[in-house]
Amino acid sequence: MEFKVISFYKYITIKDSLSLRDQLRTYCQDHKILGRILLGEEGINGAVCSKKAIIEEFKSYLKENSLFSDLTFREQEYEEQTYHKLVVRVRKEICAFGKDVNLANKAPYIQPQELEQWYKENKDFIIIDVRNEFEYDLGHFKNATKVPTDSFRDFPEQVLKQMSDNKDKDIVLYCTGGIRCEKASAFMVENGFKKVRHVNGGIINYVNQFPNSKWEGGLFVFDDRKVSAVE
Length: 231
Description:
This protein is an alpha/beta fold. The chain has helices at residues 17-30, 52-64, 112-120, 133-138, 155-163, 179-190, 202-209; strands spanning 3-11, 34-40, 43-51, 74-78, 86-90, 109-110, 126-129, 139-141, 145-146, 170-174, 195-199, 215-217, 219-220, 227-228. Strands 4-1-3-2-5 form a five-stranded mixed β-sheet. β13 (219-220) and β14 (227-228) form a beta hairpin. The protein is globular.
């Protein structure tokens, strides 16, 4: 595999997102990196692709910025470029939710290894897909709960409607790379759910470690592949 796709995010206050936008756009153009990077006052959300060595240099470049020194990456190898253009933009929300939440209230992570153990132990827990119905139908975790949504903005209303009787249950949230379930976890904590966790690194991190376990089906991805096989 000659190319590598990485996704990354961090909720952090960025005071000069316009300047950072210009810096990242120039770097990516100069190094033939394609993909999408969103910036805003609440942080960074990106997914890009290029040849492996270039991506490794880009990861180091990002982490040279003190804001992103602890940035983590979800990684997949592929035989060709997975994007056809570069988009670097500033938006109000890097992950459109439509509800104000205090991300300091986010729930703790559950690591893929612990989630795998919960399944093996038949632990009594609810696992909720934070993505939309289309993404769920392509593939999801074993016994995962589908929340009837077309977009992430629908999640707050629908999850309260669907899960209001389960505020004392162990709940695990997941999404593709972690950015949506981190914000959703803070919302649920603020609305009285007492034992919420969210999968660290999302589906990609889990299937990289456990490729033939509790994930069923394909994975929708936000690039030209559309669906990533994860078996």
